[in-house]
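yo, Glucose/galactose transporter is done. seq:
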Amino acid sequence: MGFKEFVKRRSLRARDDKRTKAAELTLRESLYPICLVTVLFFLWGFSYGLLDTLNKHFQNTLGITKSRSSGLQAAYFGAYPLASLGHANWILRHYGYRATFIWGLCLYGIGALIAFPCILAKSFAGFCMAIFVIGNGLGSLETAANPYITVCGPPRYAEMRINISQAFNGIGTVVAPVLGSYVFFTFDDETALRNVQWVYIAIAIFVFVLAFAFFLSEIPEITDADMAYQATETHANADDKPFWKQYRLFHAAFAQFCYTGAQIAIASYFINYVRDTQPSADDATASRFLAGAQGGFAAGRFFGVFLMRFIRPRWVFLAFLTLCIVFIAPSITQRGWTGMSMLYVTLFFESICFPTIVALGMRGLGRHTKRGSGWIVAGVMGGACVPPLTGVAADAHETALAMVVPLCFFVAASSYAIAVNFVPAYRDPADAFSTTEVGLTRQHPGIDEESGNEAGVIGDEKIAHTEIEL
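structure:
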């Protein structure tokens, strides 16, 4: 194979009007791309878990308040809508998933390199800027990876698939606090800061190597035409409406904003909560407690997937989110082991909420899938808004009482869980995908391998319709 042929075979541009076999991938056919993309879920779980640990670390080494330390979360999650509604979504719609994966990994690596001199200069503002670049990279990865896992393979198992992949996100959030407890909190401040530098250098090297691996890999591109086919086959034809009338999608994005904000606020101040309610615990011990709680979070995802094998995912989602509300409420008034155990149980039931909102919110979007995924991922911006509110409450009163803030946002997010179970306009598209046979057997009818168009369904007519709508 010549160099020109090599480059041509790895073109990063995919035509969205072209119907491919990707809409009907079987479990076996989807296994390799899902495993490759699942590595990304571990990456941002590790990054997010590291951020929660650094939150307390910088309070100690730089002498900043709890509310100011939430600037890390504000920079990290504030970058998400810029990526998911801006540059990453544009790349996803005009090039494809693989190009967006490579773009996000490169941004992640650049941000990790920028972090090195900022930590050397002990500049909290500079480090927040580095985290903002990293957030843009991870926001780009989430914009592509969440919908890719959801649509790569039989639609019936979408919620189970994304929760299994997201479980590796949970494993990453366990590894990071454990690393932090030994690398950041058991050394003097100068040594700890140097350790943070080398952690980010190692991250940069790894993600650049992974970006090159994605360039070399041949993974199926899932086009708008493929998603329109799935919506038609499952009779969940929500994509026949203009994008701005997809109210189910925007409700899901609102729920994602509220839920993610609550989740991030709890994790961000978990170490502070333990220190305030258990004075005998030092920072290293509290960080290991956080790792244990994140372990429960990861285990909850596997348990949720097991339940989804027998119970409709929308019911599991409603039960888990309701139990988040039930168990966080006592943590506000209780102290010691009781209060911390309530947060442990809350994190366990948080587990499946984020990925299940993604999967349910994208049901039936058809040709709007890529655009819609950007809105749901943009809801992650709640992680930039709710932690500062929680930090202000913690500074004014105490960390335990501040847990009333995430409680309120959990309640707001539950409006979507209730709607998707009891409102027919929400429930029916979700159930249509749960019973479809698409992808369960290997058959790719109606695909023209030369033109990529399904006879009479997708082609110039689809492009014209999209141009008129826009």
